[in-house]
Model the fold of this input.
Amino acid sequence: MNLSRAPKDYALLLGLAMMWSGSFVFIKIGVNTVGPLTLTAARLGIAAAVLYLWLKINGERLPRDATSLKIFAFIGFFGNALPFTLISWGEIHIDSGLTAVLMGVMPVATAVLAHLFIRDEPFTTQTAIGISIGFGGLLVLIGAEARAGLTAPILAQLAVITSAICYGASATFTRYYAGHGSGRILATGAMLAGLLWMLPVTLILEQPWQMHPGIGGLAAIAYLGLLPTALAALLFFYLVPRLGANNFAQINYLIPVLGALWGVIFLGETASWRLLTALALVLCAITIVRKGMPGR
Done:
């Protein structure tokens, strides 16, 4: 498959990185006013409504065949509902900058999954070296606490790492099924499926009607629903088939850097030596993985 790598695609990738990196700050604001399940359900609900309206404006409709429904269900869960919830819960306990750094695992997970399921995105020696360096970066972040005992921050970091692996699975799955419907159809179907995954558990466990988020919380939820969820989904389903799963995963060059930067600038968080060391190692790992890809 001849993947397009036009400058326009990488400009869009940069814009997507800015939206996703900034989302960690708004998630941090959101979980201070509502529960993580409610925050996830709300952003998915806003995104689903906007995308469904956009789908109708463009004269398209959601397919109802079994294959399409399975695709929507898979991406809705592993690309939206589960990682959104894990990140929201994780940010109750850890800084948004650390969350952004941990998301650097996503390209490593994508490289492994793409090798297993996509013929023209093989696992190389350079990829293996990059994975080892990336793992070293994670040890810098969580190793000390892990040796001291399992604590809440460790669980929060593992939750974010799991969400990064979910995103890698979603990107690989999307690349595998590239061409099965337009980006608008895939984005809308995945958001609706994600919302359906979230509604029952949210209503049962958090009773969101009892929460009072305030103006700041509502603004954060609205931003999350519109930009890093709805618009980002359209870009995701446009770019992954064009760039490939591994090429797309290079977005995580920028997400840890920008995410940590936004946390320091807007939330007054501290850039510790451990975070900076881990950041350098994760970025080094992602660079090596990318350079080891065919055609680079």
